[in-house]
Write a structure and sequence with these properties.
about 575 residues; alpha/beta; eight-stranded mixed β-sheet; six-stranded mixed β-sheet; about 45% helix; globular; ATP binding; Folylpolyglutamate_synth
Length: about 575
Amino acid sequence: MATRRLIHSVRGYSKTACRAIKLTEMAQPATSTGPMYSTQRGGPSRNKSTSKSNTEMPIKCLSTAAVNQRQDRTLEELVFDPRGELCNNNSNAARDNAEFERAINQLNSLQSNEATLLHSVNNPKKNPKLDTLKYLERSGLTMDTLQKLSFIHVSGSKGKGSTCALTESLLRHHGAHTGFYTSPHLVATNERIRVDGQPMSKAKFAKTFWKVFNRLKESQGVEQDMPAYFKFVTILAFHVFVEEQVDVALLEVGIGGEYDCTNVVPNVSTVGIVSLGLEHTDLLGKTLGEIAWQKAGIIKPGSHVFTNVDQPECLEVICQRAQEKKAVLHVVPPTREYFRSEIGAKLWDSFNEIIHLNGSLAIQLASDWLSRTAGPLHHDYNLDKVKLEPKMLLGLQNAHWPGRCQLVEYKGLRLHLDGAHTVESMTVCTEWFVKNIKQSSCPKILIFNRTRGTEYRPLLTLLIRCCDFDMVCFTPNVAFPETTVPSQLMVRISMQNQLLRAKDFATQWTEVCKKENKPDRGQVFDSVTEVFQAIRERYDRNSGQQLEVLVTGSIHLLGATISALSFMEESRT
C-alpha cells in the first residue's frame, strides 16, 4: 500500500509540474565568434569569460535532417563529428593506430564479461563487486581515491547511453569538466571512455592500457587471474577519470545493475533509471519485475533517483528498492512539457527522437547534480518547476550521440543508423525511419543483425510492417569475411555461429513475411562489405538516385557498416 501511495504521489508531482510549465526566454545573437567546443579538450573552456560566450551563442539545433554530404569528409567523420568541429591533424596516426591495435589484441584475450556475469549469476558464492574491488586495488587505484570522484550512475534497458550523453552535454555547457563511460562502442574501444565529450585518443588509450594491464599481470596470485574485458575497461575508465580530475563522471551500466561491475562506485548522489523492457533474460530474469530489481540495484543510500519508467510493475519494484535505501524517487515529466510555448513548439520539431524520449530525464539528472554540488558549478535549480534554462537548451541542441536515430548522407546513401535491439527500441526506430522516408520514392534497403537473444521475431515483425523493403540483408557484425585486425574481431561469438544466426534470421523473416502477406526479399551475406557490394551492383551510384538504407539490430553492426564503407571508398580512390 505504501508503495502504491509513493507511485501516486510521484505521478501527482509530474502532473502538477506540467501545469506550471514555463519556457525560458532565450538570447539569440546574430553572429557567432567561434566553434562551440574547444578542439583540444572537446568542451567549453572553464574560464569565466568563455563560459559567458557559451551561453550567448546562436542556437544550433540537433536535427533529424540528414547531415549535408561533404565530399572531402570520411564516413567516420560524418558519424562522429557531423559539424566538423574537431581538429584531426595527427602526424603520428599510423603509429598510434598500430599501438592501439596491439593493446586491443591483448584486451581481446580476456574473458567475455557476458560469460563472467552469467557465471556469477549461477554461482551465488561469486561476488562480482568484490571481484572488481580486488582488481581495482591491484591496478593501483584505492577506494579512497575513487571516493574523491563524483558519479552520476544510469541503468535501464534502452536509452541509458543516450541519456548519459545528453546529461554530459548539459553539464559541460555549465562549465563542468566531465568524464563519460559507455558501452558498447561503434568502431573502436577508445570510444567507451570520453573526457569533455570526446573519446580518449588511441595513443592515450594504449598508454593507459599497458600501465594498468602490466600492474594487474605482475600482481597475479595465480595464472589467468585477470579481469574480464568489460571489467578491465571499466577499471581503465576509473584510472582515466582520476588522472583527468574530472568534476563529474557519467557512468552507464553494462548489463543489469545490481551485479554490474560499475556498481562499485561509492560517491553517487544522483541516479537515473531509463525505460525498461525484456532483455538479457538469461542473466536478469524472465519478468519485468525481476529486471527492474536488477536495474534498481544501483540506487545508493540517500541518493536522488530519477526515472522515466512508466510500467506499474516496474515502478513498484523501483519504489521498494528506493525505500530500502532511504532514497528519494522522482518520475520525470515528458520532455514535451518543456516545449509548450510557441517558440518551444518550433524547437521541439527540430529535435531528434533521443531528446524526445530522454531529454527530460537528462535535464533532471543534470539539474540535481548541479544543485547538490558545491563551489563555482553550483546552480539553484528548482526541480519542482518544468522550466528550461538557456544553458540546458544549449546543452540539448549541441549534444551528439552517434549511431542512435542518426541519419547520414554519404556517397549516394542515406544511412539510417540505430542500434535498436529490443521491442521498445525497435518501435521507436521504425517510427523514426518511416517519418524519414515519408516523402521518398527511392529504393529502401534493410541491413539487420542481432548479437544475442532468441526473441527476435517481434523485431522482424515491426520491420516488415514499417515498409516494403526492396532489399533485405542479414549479415554477421563483421566488416570483412576474414580479418586479423583486432578491433574488427567479434571475440565473443565465432564467425560460424554468427552466420548460423544470420541464416536463422532469414528463415524467420520468410515465415513472418508469409504471415503478414508481404514479399520476401531476404538474403544472407558473409559480411557487411559483401552487402554493400551487392547493393552497388544492383543500384548504379552514378544515377543520382539516393538509397534509403536502414541499419539496425546491433550497435556492432553499425560499427561494421562504418568500417566496411570506409574501406570500400578507400579502395575505390
